Amino acid sequence: MRWSPLKLLLAATVLVCGSVSAEPALHNIYGRQHLLLDGRWNYIVDPYETGYYNYRRQPYDQSEGGSGGFYDDRKPKDKGDIVEYSFEGSPTLAIPGDWNSQDAKLENYEGTVWMRQQFNAAPKEGKRYFLYFGAVNYEAHVYLNGKKIGSHKGGFTPFQFDVTGKLKPGQNTVIVKADNTRHQDDIPTVSTDWWNYGGITRDVLLAEVPETHIADYQIQLAKGDMRRIEGFVQIDGPQRAQDVTVTIPEAGIKTTVHAGADGRAAISIPLTAKQLHYWSPEDPKLYGVTLSSATDTVNDRIGFRTIVTHGRDILLNGKSIFLRGVSVHDENPLIPGRLRGEGDMRMLLQWAKEMNCNYVRLAHYTHSEEMIRLADEMGLLVWAEVPVYWTISWQKPEVFDNAKQQMTDMIVRDRNRASVVIWSIGNETPVSEVRTNFMGRMADTVRSLDTTRLVGAALEVHRTGDEITVADPLADKLDLVSFNEYAGWYWANNSDMLKFHFNITANKPVIITEFGADALGGYHGDADSRWSEEYQDQLYRNQFKMLDAIPGLRGMTPWVLVDFRSPRRPHPYFQDFWNRKGLLTQSGKKKQAFYTLKAYYDQKQKQYK
Length: 609
Ligand code: GCU
What we know:
Blueprint: H1 5-17, E1 33-36, E2 39-45, E3 92-95, E4 112-121, E5 127-133, E6 136-137, E7 139-144, E8 147-153, E9 159-162, E10 170-179, E11 199-200, E12 204-210, E13 213-222, E14 225-236, E15 243-248, E16 253-258, E17 264-270, E18 287-293, E19 297-302, E20 307-310, E21 313-316, E22 319-320, E23 323-328, H2 342-354, E24 359-362, H3 369-378, E25 381-385, H4 397-414, E26 420-427, H5 433-449, E27 454-458, E28 462-464, E29 467-469, E30 481-484, E31 501-503, E32 510-514, H6 533-547, E33 553-556, E34 564-565, E35 578-579, H7 592-607
Parallel strand pairs: 23-24, 23-33, 24-25, 25-26, 26-27, 29-31, 30-32, 32-33
Antiparallel strand pairs: 1-12, 2-3, 2-4, 4-10, 5-9, 5-12, 6-11, 7-8, 7-10, 13-14, 14-17, 15-16, 15-18, 18-19, 20-21, 21-22, 28-29, 34-35
Residues 193, 364, 427-428, 484, 514, 559, 579, 581 line the site of alpha-D-glucopyranuronic acid.
């Protein structure tokens, strides 16, 4: 079996430390043969790391070849044997699902929880097996049948471990140690304005692929060229040099490319004028695409569109567009907890559609693949973001590596999704030289991985008197002037916010990534009464007046679709640990401002017909 340099490096790592950090995940995991390991997992709460260290804090962890940890899933040998833990008989969590929302004792819990699932497998010769996690917040250590198979840091992006040869015929046991403790040097850092939901928050799959398989591919329109599909296909395994045929039957496309010894082949398909029906929010056309090689076949559903800027315009399929958006957290307010699956994801996106949105900012971290695929299907453009949020430890190389890895994993996962048009490298990061260097390298990372989309960030602005200036040096590295402003809420109020005006010199499209006001649903007063629906509504009306004065305004994602939970919002009456800037209440009731924003978007839609 020939090993690529990456594989050799991974193998060496295993030899040295007994486990590896995760490898790049298979693209289009749901399109592979797979067993879903979701369902009820037994769990043990472990605030003192009893299952990972002995009482002298000596590691049981198998990275050091130890044993004795909870991952052994030991049972007493006889009546004289002592084992002080048991997954049998422990309570269960619904996976995917954070633990905070499923056990009242864990609502605020930050620490380690061990989770166990058992499943039957029938491993076959000539197949590769990957244990794939959609996301685990924040640090995961994974064990299969009592053996460490790897670890991963980062709470919102997928990862996988090659478990070929480690599965037993019949029953297998996977145990995950998840730890959502926050640290200053993590991405995000210790301070965020959202709930720190811990655990296995997205699907877990056991994928089966041929030994030589199609590992990755990109099939998109070339940047700004509606007459050419371009991309690549990457084969992995011992027989990489293969022909790969790409077929898009409904578009009359069938082309064969030849992967070399490295398993990679470029794809370039010229198109006639009317050969493709382009994807757009109004008409989200998806095509069946099949990639087949001598040993593997993968099916996908892909939309084709271009997105470019031209001066202050954003052009979708060559036509100027206004991004009628709203910001969205990955949280179902009715639980409340992390989104669990298609049902609650569709609920959030349907609320956005009801507001006549054609665009959503999926803040402040990578949302699930299912959410992005739903946006493809429902016709919503997407701003996708990594949680480089607020006061990151800019100066530490390992922190940059973490941010870069999360950005890479997001792009690799979603780069065939028509809905994703903007990769965001972060939110509200205080300007400094070390930060601008860090973020500039993040922007370079995006462009090295994907030339077909725009690069953005929610920049901060600075106010001098009534003038709001956008002069962030990072803006030079971005395709958009995109920033958060809280005129009327954190700055001034409804009666005097119209004094503000903007000083924006860059000749680029302007997107307001956040503005808004808290309103407790059902609390009423006049337009000067903070926390009232009337105040929020009036602020939105004032914002439209103020923002429409910006010549390059081409979009906005008011903060926020629906009230969401935050440890930073303790006011007992108005907040109760909820951020109330939602246009809908935590029970999904529309506030007055919901209708005002919809009316504004109806008018914008006509203007950009
Ligand atoms: C910031 C931040 C959000 C936060 C919002 C607020 O702009 O980006 O994450 O929730 O302000 O204060 O409500």
